[in-house]
Write a structure and sequence with these properties.
CATH topology of the largest domain: Outer membrane efflux proteins (OEP)
Distance between the termini: 67 Å
Number of helices: 9
Strand order of the largest sheet: 2-5-7-8
Shape: elongated
Number of strands: 8
CATH superfamily of the largest domain: Outer membrane efflux proteins (OEP)
Radius of gyration: 41 Å
CATH architecture of the largest domain: Up-down Bundle
Order of helices and strands: HEHHEEEEHHEHHEEHH
CATH class of the largest domain: Mainly Alpha
Strand content: 15-25%
Structural class: alpha+beta
Largest sheet: 4 strands, antiparallel
Helix content: 55-70%
């Protein structure tokens, strides 16, 4: 019995431990983009907006479909309304009146109404508006997906940049610690001044501070990427791509020769849908001058009595039915409809102007994005050359310092130049990736 209890407790503990284990994710950049497009919080809500728009479209459609409504009413006349009639009708004194109560104490009515809209210009415009509203929601989803893709690229790159920065700083730290150790030994032998040791200590302290800061920044960047991917911040995330490999895959001069088709851009499509919605608004205002026609058929039963016995076989129910047609013809609105129509025309002209402005802005933005991408490629080449030069300069100064031909100040200056060149090169690689993503977003790729 004791063994069974122990086994049960161990099994229960293992289940709890399994539940507490964090999920682990590992993504390349392509996989991260695919995951974000499916699981990002904004994308999920964009999908819900589309579903809501579909429901709104159907709601509008049902306005023109047959409608059936039922009603049941009960009235208890606990004090019947009374009227006065001449008393002489009942043999009373002429000139006097007699109180008479009309009706029964209880009454009940059950009815059903079938109504059908036959013609209404506003309804026809409403159907078109519902379709446009759905398109706007679909465009919003596409725009959200494009923005999420660009953000994932930027965030993924920031994590890789932090990783590479940590590796470089750790390498620089190791080299500097060895240099500092050797310098201390030389100082102990009285061959150099203490200032040389102190200068190296200052540089090492700066590197240690930078290293700790980059580690913290990596944690923040990693959590930011998790948030964009729709992953719980408590879960583990590892990236399989490397910054240099991603940079090489984004070196593509062919994209600079692509023609910009503004109609493929989602912002332009959104502007077109906005113009369409204004056109429909104008149609709606014009349609309000048209007559509307509807019909309804009513079926029902009435029952009356001084006793409540509506659900017994003794109760007599009286049926009725009728057909009604309603024609509403707008005649004069003191020019209110005309004023609203003119406002709709003005709004339409404004949307046309906005669409033209959007087109011009997008063309300018495309040219700027091309220029930015070209510049990032140039900067990558320049920063790589500068890094090679800075490494040679630092290496020469390292040899000179070891041989006593230069001071620690000269070495520190060369080291700082190298560290700056290293960070510039990493940033140049990240810029190539980010600028390519911005350009592809405009091209709708």
């Amino acid at each position: 019995m004791k063994n069974k209890i122990i086994l049960t407790l161990l099994l229960f503990a293992s289940i709890l431990q399994a539940q507490e284990q964090k999920e682990s994710y590992s993504f390349s950049l392509k996989q991260a983009i695919e995951h974000a497009i499916q699981n990002n919080y904004s994308v999920i809500n964009a999908n819900r907006d589309i579903e809501a728009a579909k429901q709104k479209k159907w709601e509008t459609t049902t306005i023109g479909l047959p409608q059936i409504n039922g009603a049941v009413g009960y009235v208890n006349n606990f004090e019947l309304q009374k009227s006065l009639i001449p008393a002489e009708i009942f043999g009373g004194t002429p000139g006097t009146f007699q109180e008479v109560a009309f009706g029964t104490k209880h009454s009940m009515n059950a009815s059903a109404t079938l109504s059908q809209l036959i013609f209404d210009g506003s309804y026809l415009v409403g159907l078109q508006s519902a379709k446009t509203y759905l398109k706007i929601s679909e465009n919003a989803k596409v725009k959200t997906a494009q923005e999420i893709k660009e953000i994932v690229v930027n965030s993924y790159g920031n994590v890789l940049l932090a990783d590479e920065s940590i590796l470089i700083l750790q390498k620089n730290k190791g080299i500097l610690e060895k240099t500092l150790s050797d310098t201390k030994e030389i100082y102990k032998n009285g061959l150099i001044e203490e200032e040389n040791v102190e200068q190296l200590q200052i540089t090492l302290s700066s590197i240690n501070s930078s290293l700790e800061n980059v580690k913290r920044q990596k944690t923040i960047a990693n959590d930011m990427l998790k948030l964009i991917l729709g992953i719980n911040l408590e879960n583990q995330l590892s990236l399989t791509d490397k910054l240099e490999n991603l940079t090489l895959s984004n070196l593509d001069l062919a994209v600079l020769r692509e023609e910009f088709n503004v109609t493929n851009n989602i912002d332009y499509q959104i502007g077109q849908n906005l113009q369409t919605s204004k056109e429909l608004l104008l149609k709606l205002e014009k349609s309000k001058a048209l007559p509307s026609l509807g019909a309804a058929v009513n079926f029902g039963y009435n029952a009356f009595g001084n006793e409540f016995q509506f659900f017994t076989s003794n109760q007599k129910w009286l049926n009725y039915s009728n057909l009604g047609i309603n024609l509403n013809v707008p005649i004069f609105s003191s020019f209110g409809r005309s004023s609203r129509t003119q406002q709709a025309k003005i709004a339409l002209e404004q949307s046309k102007t906005q669409l033209t402005e959007t087109e011009q802005k997008l063309r300018l933005q495309f040219e700027k994005s091309k220029s930015d991408y070209e510049f990032s490629l140039e900067q990558l080449s320049t920063s790589k050359s500068n890094l090679n030069l800075a490494e040679r300069i630092e290496n020469k100064n390292q040899i000179k310092f070891t041989e006593g031909l230069s001071s620690s100040f000269d070495l520190t200056k060369a080291q700082e130049q190298l560290y700056s060149a290293q960070q510039n090169y990493l940033q140049a690689m990240l810029d190539v990736i980010n600028k390519r993503a911005s350009l592809e977003k405009l091209l709708n790729k």
